[in-house]
């Protein structure tokens, strides 16, 4: 098969080259690197369906002649891209959510679309536990103390930075998908007790609460690992925050839509919560300090949960495995649109 793998500034083509190298004897491989294109303005219905993409469809269209398998990370895949090769048989997107692909157009052409759910699960789980440690040990305020040129002259002055061990604390996981399960495994290694609330998952091996409110009232640390849906938008709002234990910590490495940040700001200001760490939060005014950082017990990071080299390699490897299956006539695993192709089995649902 003729395979075109398209890299971008986040996931350069070299990651696809390394993962697909083992396919060189059986397939013809080509690589393309796309760059940002400020001149591209989405106009067609297909283009307007896309989100979080890099570049324009033009370089892909020019490179698609005879291509049977298209592989992208963030490059835009529109109806024009799909129609540029009459031989196209499989579309691959090395992301958990193929938001840069016109899924409707892919499906309408009877093509299977595969993605890479869970490729960043290890990285996000690591960051989640790092956040818990940093908040429990009050590292944000300690670093600010040093950054302002202060010093402690003896151990007695160090009492102001007393925090908590993780052992014995209860961690409440809202969502028990691929990330949540990995966080639970890591947390138990620290001696934490773990409970979970997920009405859509089979929670095995740990305690499951019957309701979100029950979990909130039983946990010293609440960590969010749920998908964002219309039903759970703002689920951690005034009522939910009030239901949390006084002095509890809140972690969000899932989706910003899950948290009402105005209510969170008030819960921090009142002292009801002891701290919060958010890898995802609503964008404020460019160039201005986020309001939540007025609290010395808050950590904000710019959505870097999955930003590791290992995550990129994992995504490329998952795509290589799908192409191998496809080439051998075996069922695909992580299929976004299973009805598009006979013999293709649904894959794992995307998890936060």
The biggest beta sheet reads: 7 strands, parallel
How many structural domains in the coordinates? Answer: 2
Rg, Cα atoms, Å: 23 Å
CATH fold node name of the largest domain: Rossmann fold
Put simply, the count of helices is 12
Task: Examine the secondary-structure arrangement and name the CATH architecture of the largest domain.
Answer: 3-Layer(aba) Sandwich
Query: Helix/strand/pairing class, anyone?
Result: alpha/beta
- Reading the helices and strands in chain order gives EHEHHEHEHEHHEHEEHEHEHEEH
The strand count comes to 12
**Any idea what the shape is?**
elongated
Strand order of the largest sheet: 8-7-6-9-10-11-12
**Head-to-tail CA distance between termini:** 33 Å
Low-confidence runs of at least 5 consecutive residues: 341-352
β-sheet strand percentage: 5-15%
Helix content: 25-40%
- Mean pLDDT across every amino acid position: 94
Layout of secondary structure:
Layout lengths: L1 E6 L5 H8 L7 E6 L11 H4 L9 H6 L5 E4 L6 H5 L6 E4 L9 H6 L4 E2 L6 H16 L2 H9 L22 E5 L3 H12 L3 E5 L9 E2 L3 H7 L2 E4 L13 H6 L4 E5 L8 H9 L3 E6 L19 E3 L8 H19 L25
Parallel strand pairs: 1-2, 1-3, 3-4, 4-5, 6-7, 6-9, 7-8, 9-10, 10-11, 11-12
Helix pairs in contact: 1-12, 6-8
Describe the structure.
By secondary structure, the protein is an alpha/beta fold. It folds into 2 domains: 2-119 and 308-340, 3-Layer(aba) Sandwich (Rossmann fold), CATH 3.40.50.720; 121-300, NAD(P)-binding Rossmann-like Domain (Rossmann fold, 3-Layer(aba) Sandwich), CATH 3.40.50.720. Helices cover 30% and strands 15% of the residues. The chain has helices at residues 13-20, 45-48, 58-63, 79-83, 103-108, 121-136, 139-147, 178-189, 212-218, 238-243, 261-269, 309-327, and strands spanning 2-7, 28-33, 69-72, 90-93, 113-114, 170-174, 193-197, 207-208, 221-224, 248-252, 273-278, 298-300. Strands 8-7-6-9-10-11-12 form a 7-stranded parallel sheet, with helices on both faces. Strand 3, helix 4 and strand 4 form a beta-alpha-beta unit. Helix 1 (13-20) packs across helix 12. The model is unreliable at 341-352 (pLDDT under 50).
